[in-house]
Amino acid sequence: MRPVDEQTVLVTGATDGLGRALARELAARGATVLVHGRSEERLQETAEEVGSERIQPYRADFASLDEVRRLAGDVERDHERLDLLINNAGIGGGKDGRREESADGYELRFAANYLAPFLLTNLLLSLLRRSAPARVVNVASVGQSPIDFDDVMLEHEYSGMRAYSQSKLAQIMFTFTLAERLAAEEAGVTVNALHPASLMNTKMVYESFGYTMSTVEDGVEATLRLAISPDLDGVSGRYFDRLHEARAGEQAYDEDARLRLWRLSEELAARPART
Questions:
Q1: What does the alpha-carbon distance between residue 117 and residue 69 come to, in Å, rounded to a whole number?
Q2: Catalytic choice (106, 114, 164, 239)
Q3: Dihedral angle at the C-alpha atoms of 153, 275, 95, 211, nearest 10 degrees?
C-alpha cells in the first residue's frame, strides 16, 4: 500500500460512531478522506469537527440503490484513484421489531447493510484496480444468521435482529467471494471483513440494546489494522474478530450458497427502482 498520507479513502457511514472516528483518524494521518452520510447537515458537522482540508463530503441514502449508483459515479468523477474503501454504513436491529422496506422494495436491513455496499464496491472496482495495491474493508458483526433463500426479505417471522445479523453474514459471504474473484485475476485488491468490537458506545447500539460493552476506540483500532497495517499486505478473503482472524458463520463457507447469494444480489441490484 501507498503511505497513508498519499491515500484516497472512502468511509461510508462516516457521520457518526465508528465511521466518524475512522474518518477523523485517517485525516489526522494525512489521508484524503471521502466521508459518506445520508444527511447534508451531519456531513458538514463531521467535516467541521475533523477540521481537515482533505475531508470531502458525499451524501447518499443507502436505502436507495439509485443513490448508491450516484455516489459511485461522483467518486469516480472526482478522483483518479481510490486506495481504500471502508464499507461501514449500516443500521441496527431497531427497537420496535417493525419490518421496513427500502426505496427499492427490499427488506431495509438487507438493502442498506448488504446490498448497497455490494453494489457500491462493484461499481468502484475499476477505480480500485487502477489504484492497486488497494483494499476493501467490510465492517460486519459477530452477530450472523444464515440466509433463508426461500425468504430472503423476511416476509415471514420477521425480527429486527435476525434481519441485521442476516445482512452481516451476507457481507462476509460477499467478502469471501469477491476476494476469490480478485485473486484469480491478480487485481492487486484485497477484501476482508471484521467484527470491530462488541456493542461499542454508538447511537445505533444504544438504540438497539440500551447498553454498551466496548468503545469506538476499540473498533477503530481493529478496523485501522485491516485498513492500513503493512502486516495485512496481500491478505484477502478473511474474517476477523477484532484483532484476530476468526471463523465466520458456517454458511459463509458454503460455495453454493455464496454463488446463489452473488447471483441474487446482481439480480436485485440490476432491477429498476420501484415507482
A1: 11
A2: 164
A3: 90
Total number of domains in the chain:
1
Kindly report, residue by residue over 192-247, the tens digit of the pLDDT.
999 997 766 565 654 555 645 568 888 899 999 999 999 999 999 999 999 999 99
Residue 275 maps to a domain: no
The domain that contains 103 carries what CATH number? 3.40.50.720
Helix (H, G, I), strand (E, B) or coil at 56: strand
Rounded CA separation 60/40 (Å):
9
C-alpha cell at 85: 474503501
164 is catalytic: yes
Q: Please state which of the ranges 38-47, 123-132, 149-158, 201-210 shows the lowest mean pLDDT.
A: 201-210
State which residues form the domain around 122.
4-270
The pTM assigned to this predicted structure is 0.94
